[in-house]
Amino acid sequence: MPIPSILKTTVATLAITASGALFAQGTPINAAAFDALIAQGPVADAATIASSSWATKIKQAGTMRFGGTQTSNLFSLLNEKDGKIRGFDAGLAQLLTRYILGDGAKYQFTQVNSSTREQVLINDQVDMVFATYSITPARAEKISFAGPYYTSQAGVLVKANNKAIQSYSDLAGKKVATQAGSTGPAILAQYAPKAVVQEFQTHQETLDGLRQGRVDAYVTDYTLLLNALSLGVSNARLAGAPFGAQDPYGVGLPKGSDGVAFVNAFLKKLEANGTWAKLWTVSIGQRTGSTAVPTPPAHP
């Protein structure tokens, strides 16, 4: 699968302060353009809804229950002033809500993290999870995935004054943080087997560990690191280019759900009518200086 333009983003889209700190020139999302795009999203007809028991259940309930995050600047960020969540993942979730219910605002949000995403689906607390959710065989044993709708790779974040780590190949013997329940531990086992791995429960706790000097580096999904920088994490920099296998993001659904086929058909509709590209542009492209819209990854 092709690497999205965001993964080709270099330090050219970032700025270096006089002290050498690296931070993003954060550009807020164009809320008006985002909201207009959601309001113009397609709406499924009755026959399409009736073809899926998953969609029918949501239609009858009148509410989409979805698990996600509120702190992912490019993918799903809460605007405390108007109470709305915007970003690439949030936009797809709201477009899917509109597709089923005719109104993208008819959702009930549940905060999830990398350790709780499967359980909220297993416990029927949510209908779907949109949370930069990497598709893995282990997770697919517990839940089902639609998509992928996006791909990423891994990245390394270090303090700006750390000259010893220039890429993942410099992590041997270093204290390296990652999130418990994420793909980070497996990535480190493959690409930096001699690193001293420390697992934290949340993204913020991991960033705090790096800031406080308890670890030398943080390895996780490259887009999450871009999010951190764009949110104003200072005195930190990306060490080297993205690495590792393509990391496909999927929509988490209950195990065996016929929602998989329904959501895949929905994604194909958005890709064909240009909505996927428009959402990528307003959520990510315009805010990272990336003008070449990536090709959506192939999916069933």
Properties at a glance:
three-stranded antiparallel β-sheet; alpha/beta; 14 strands; 26% strand; 300 residues
List the helices and strands and how they pair.
Elements: E1 14-16, E2 22-24, H1 31-39, H2 46-50, H3 53-61, E3 64-68, E4 71-72, E5 76-79, E6 84-86, H4 88-101, E7 107-111, H5 117-122, E8 128-134, H6 137-140, E9 144-159, E10 175-179, H7 184-191, E11 196-200, H8 203-211, E12 217-221, H9 222-230, E13 236-238, E14 243-253, H10 259-273, H11 275-288
Parallel strand pairs: 3-7, 3-8, 10-11, 10-12
Antiparallel strand pairs: 1-2, 4-5, 5-6, 8-14, 9-12, 9-13, 9-14
| Class based on secondary structure composition and strand pairing | alpha/beta
Residues in helices, as a percent range? 25-40%
Cα-atom radius of gyration = 19 Å
Largest sheet: 9 strands, mixed
In sequence order, what are the helices and strands, one letter per element? EEHHHEEEEHEHEHEEHEHEHEEHH
- The percent range for strand residues is 25-35%
Distance between the termini: 14 Å
Strand segment tally: 14
The coarse overall form would be globular
Mean pLDDT reading: 88
Q: Count of helical segments?
A: 11
Give the uncertain stretches in residue-range form: 1-25
